[in-house]
Amino acid sequence: MFHSAAVKLTLWYLALITALSIGTSFALYHVSSNYLEENAKRQASYFSGLLGPQNAREFSNLRFRQLADDRNKLKSNLVIFNLLVLGGGGAASYGLARRTLKPIEDALESQVRFAADASHELRTPLTAIQTENEVALRNAKLSRVEAIKLLRSNLEEVGKLKTLSEGLLSLAHSRQDHKTTVLSARTLVKKAKDRAAKAASLKKINLRTSSVNGDVNVRGNEQKIVDLLVILLDNAIKYSPAGSSIKIDIKKNGKSTEIIVSDKGQGIKRSDLPSIFERFYRADHSRNKQKTTGYGLGLAIAKKIADQHGAAIQVRSAAGKGSTFTVRFPKA
Ligand code: ADP
Atom 4, ligand 1: which residue's CA is nearest? Predict the structure, then answer.
């Protein structure tokens, strides 16, 4: 599809170049040919005074034959020039067309991949619900206890679907028209901690905060930045052993403000580090015998929020030792 679009665009570019080149050539031919004719006439009239009438006529004939030759030469030069422009312009136009279409091609490809990945992820919980219900329906003696168990399991899968669709929605929203204000970093961290508190207490994990003296500000949308911090805290909790502690630091670094989440959990393998911000990417947890609970969307969403705020997210991690995620916000 893109090849034919590129060819079409090439033809448009080429038509434009050719029209310009032929137009210019006509004008050039017209001007030069007039000039040559003027010259020939001037020479003929000048020499007619010096030579006798017979010689003057011969000279004039010769001069006008020369003029016709010059015009033919000019014409063939211009034809060659136009053919060269057509050849060179064709190649350049094709290159230019491919360059113009490349970002569109990439965006479309990424959308197709996004839809394919999303459908693939949606299938797993849907298939689980379908299978469980089909098995239960075939059981003529389904007891009340079994039915309740089935409903609970269905609800769990529906919950997962809801989380997944919410994640997909935040990734799909590309608009950046959110309200931004100057926010206190400490308040943002507190709000994020409150939201992560339940998950932390279930694993008896202690969330500690330390911050610079006096408060520091960041500019942005409160809800989004809190969402970003909750993603980092949830991950830190999810990938840390029960009873461990997680630290949240607020620091000033030059004119920027940093919010740093450090855990002492399982860490991330060096080979996984470059990919963890990609959507649907989950590092392999089989070694840790840990059930994966996420869809690999959290960090992609966090990165998107950071991008929308002109902030950067960096990660430092050592397998088995823990991870540190730093979000650096520009001057508020
Ligand atoms: P998920 O829903 O799988 O947690 P994320 O996008 O939030 O998806 O994270 C992608 C992957 O990065 C996770 O599967 C996990 O392997 C790794 N990861 C993220 N945060 C941490 C962390 N604090 N400690 C260890 N691994 C992490």
Answer: 294
Cα(95)–Cα(154) distance, rounded to whole angstroms? Answer: 54
Q: What is the tens place of the pLDDT at every residue in 123-161?
A: 988 999 999 999 999 999 999 999 999 999 999 999 989
Going by alpha carbons, the residue nearest to atom 14 of ligand 1 is 282
Q: Residue ranges of the alpha helices (H) in the chain?
A: 2-50, 53-138, 144-172, 185-202, 222-238, 298-308
Backbone angles phi, psi at 244, to 5 degrees: -85, 180
Q: Which residues fall within 8 angstroms of residue 155, CB to CB, at 6 or more apart? A: none
The owner of tokens 């269905």 is: 154
Cα separations in angstroms, 58 against 35, 37, 55, 62, 79? 22, 17, 5, 6, 32
**Residues 6+ positions from 272 with CB-CB distance below 8 Å:** 281, 283, 284
Answer whether 321's CB lies under 8 Å from 264's CB: yes
Both structure tokens of 313: 């997210």
Q: Whole-prediction pTM value? A: 0.73
- Output the CA 269–ligand 1 centroid distance in Å: 11
d(CA 259, CA 212) in angstroms, rounded, equals: 11
Distance 107 CA to ligand 1 centre (A): 26
176 in Cβ contact with 309 (< 8 Å)? no
Amino acid in position 19: A
Report residue 176's pLDDT band, with 50, 70 and 90 as the boundaries.
low
- Edge-first strand order for the sheet with 312-318 is 206-211, 245-253, 256-263, 322-329, 312-318
